[in-house]
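Quick one, T. Sequence first:
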Amino acid sequence: MRIALTVLFSLSLTTVALADMKASVEWGPTKKCFDSKSPPISLSGVPAGTVKLDIKMVDMDAMSYNHGGGKVDYKGQQSLPYGAFRYSGPCPPMRHTYRFTVKALDAVGKTLATAKASKDFPQ
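Structure tokens:
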């Protein structure tokens, strides 16, 4: 019984940690179509044990277009600069909404937390 309660308590703490990670995106220097450099991304609540961030971008208005993303080593930084990884940047015919998903990964690639942020382009 004590083991079951310990497991349940541990799972509830993990759920709380998952809810705390946040990300926000600013296009920053991104001005041209298909800029291959990623935009600046701010992070908070990244869980302990994170060694990599896996970032993907999806065009919510043209979901079949693969913009890709990238993996970045995580060493406690609170933001990723412009160009932290390469991807296929936005170039919509009119304003589109883009969703960035940032996954915090541990040393074996297990997802510890996920954060999502959306931003229109052009602004």
